[in-house]
């Protein structure tokens, strides 16, 4: 089932800081399926684990591909604390997967068949803006809600200058 586009210009209704994690893999040798397939499947398993326990802090994600070799997930989190807590929790899949990969790496068993990477960003309010044209809720707007662009400003400068009520109280 496809989401229907919202007509007109909209923006994300995000307020406060935004936490974004980009995490992915690159297949360096297609024939080494036994090396890269478990990495790909582990990401799907972790996303399922997080979907079953919303209190862990993952608000939503978008799975993307940059090429036939490179796959990644854009994740939106409630806070950097919840992201870190998930990543380091010994009872969660991420900790177990990275421990296993680190063991294989130390033993020389990965042999460069699959690359792994992540980038994490904590973006303070006033340092992000968004605009969508005739789009269903996507990305930041999907996890924080979508509002008509006029509520935040017609131009990017206006949207960057927008401050939520909480931020305005702190500043005043």
- Low-pLDDT segments: none
What integer is the average pLDDT? 93
Reported for the largest beta sheet, the result is: 4 strands, antiparallel
Largest beta sheet: what is the strand line-up?
3-4-2-5
Broad structural category = alpha+beta
Number of helices: 6
C-alpha Rg (nearest Å): 19 Å
Order of helices and strands: EEHEEHHEEHEHH
The separation of the N and C termini measures 46 Å
Please give the number of β-strands: 7
- Approximate helicity band: 25-40%
Inertia-based shape: elongated
- Residue fraction in strands: 25-35%
Give structural notes.
The protein contains 6 helices and 7 strands. It is an alpha+beta fold and 172 residues long. The chain has a 4-stranded antiparallel beta sheet. The protein is elongated. The relative contact order is 0.27.
Could you give a quick summary of the protein structure above?
This protein is α+β, with helices and mostly antiparallel strands and 172 residues long.
Output the keywords.
4-stranded antiparallel β-sheet, 3-stranded antiparallel β-sheet, elongated, single chain, 7 strands, 35% helix, alpha+beta, 172 residues
Spell out the blueprint of helices and strands.
Layout: E1 6-12, E2 18-27, H1 33-52, E3 58-65, E4 70-77, H2 80-88, H3 93-106, E5 114-123, E6 132-135, H4 140-144, E7 146-148, H5 156-161, H6 165-171
Antiparallel strand pairs: 1-6, 1-7, 2-4, 2-5, 3-4
